[in-house]
Write a structure and sequence with these properties.
about 325 residues, alpha/beta, binds S-adenosylmethionine, about 45% helix, seven-stranded mixed beta sheet, about 10% strand
Length: about 325
């Protein structure tokens, strides 16, 4: 299969993100997941020459895209090549006030389409799936060393795969004969483990999709990283600061939704208390009551946008100054 090497990432829900968080001239923004900088370019255009844009990504390929952006835009720019939770912690230690922090979760089209990185079940490639190629854990290690029970839990929790146990059992059976080295071998194992009738009942989609998603989440520690990052991002916001996140599966979206809803909650006194004694005030105004999904037009133009869900909130009250 020929790859289109000119293909880059098309930013998802870009107009909706800008409308919701409305970056203004002179503001400071933090892009936690820079990728090819599609969202960052739009934000840079809005914050203008007096604004500041801090970009984070743990993939060295993103840093090359950042260098292009830094030459094109008028605002101050800075790049942090690290996990966004580490980047946000560092910015917090530096005392940065960010008017706007946003994250566009998951992987970029460049990562999926770079065959050799092993993110895709559509190409036969070494089992890798690391966003940061300098980290030790890769998909080969997960598939070849994790115990059957741990693999089964992984496919169940992070892939929500109804055939988790069967697939884990088949992986262990096969690797007793020889190490599993490629994405193609893994796809064949999943296909062998899951009968065709069960695969059809999944409601379409590639039979290995959920397993690949689960392994990718584990290799890149995606959910723990998001859990660490959300409060760190919130702590950077002064009164009126905005936080937005675009998720691509329910495990991420649930975390974002819960985090924002918790901050938007006021009094937590039991309902039978005649008056409020907790004195708790909401620290967030939700800018999205429901997650915003891409329009049918966006999905038609960019099918990879299909599962994107955007949520955003504005901070109320000043962050603690200590
Ligand atoms: C969906 S893409 C972002 C695309 C970008 N918004 C654009 O318009 O080009 C997600 C990017 O986030 C990065 N990423 C994902 N999780 C990360 C994390 N925990 N820390 C740092 N970067 C992360 C990936 O390497 C990838 O480049």
């Amino acid at each position: 299969m020929l790859l289109d090497m000119t293909r880059t990432h098309v930013p998802v829900l870009a107009g909706e993100l800008i409308d919701l968080v409305s970056p203004a001239p002179g503001e400071t923004a933090v892009d936690c997941t820079f990728g090819a900088g599609g969202h960052a370019r739009l934000v840079a255009g809005r914050i203008g020459p007096t604004g500041t844009l801090v970009c984070i990504d743990r993939d060295p390929a993103a840093e090359e895209h950042f260098e292009d952006l830094a030459r094109e835009v008028a605002c101050d720019t800075r790049f942090l090549r690290m996990d966004y939770s580490e980047g946000l912690a560092l910015l917090g230690e530096e005392g940065l006030d960010a008017d706007l922090v946003y994250m566009d979760l998951g992987i970029s089209s460049m990562q999926v389409d770079a065959m050799e990185r092993g993110f895709s079940y559509s190409y036969d490639a070494p089992l890798d799936m690391r966003m940061d190629p300098d980290q030790d854990l890769d998909a080969r290690e997960v598939v070849n060393t994790w115990e059957e029970r741990r693999l089964s839990q992984l496919f169940h929790r992070y892939g929500e795969d109804p055939s988790a146990r069967r697939i884990a059992r088949e992986i262990v059976r096969r690797r007793e004969r020889a190490r599993i080295e490629t994405t193609g071998e893994l796809v064949a194992i999943v296909e062998a483990a899951v009968p065709a009738a069960v695969r059809r009942s999944f409601g379409g989609g590639h039979p290995a999709k959920r397993v690949f998603q689960a392994i990718r989440i584990a290799v890149n520690d995606e959910l723990d990283s998001l859990d660490r990052a959300l409060p760190l991002a919130w702590d950077l916001l002064p009164d009126g600061g905005r936080l937005a996140a675009i998720s691509f599966h329910s495990l991420e979206d649930r975390r974002v939704k819960r985090f924002l809803a918790e901050r938007a909650r006021g009094c937590v006194c039991p309902p039978d208390f005649p008056v409020c004694v907790c004195g708790r005030e909401p620290e967030a105004e939700l800018l999205t009551r429901r997650a915003v999904a891409p329009t049918p037009g966006e999905v038609a133009d960019n099918p990879r946008s299909k599962s994107g869900r955007l949520r955003a909130a504005r901070r109320l009250g000043r962050k603690d100054v200590s």
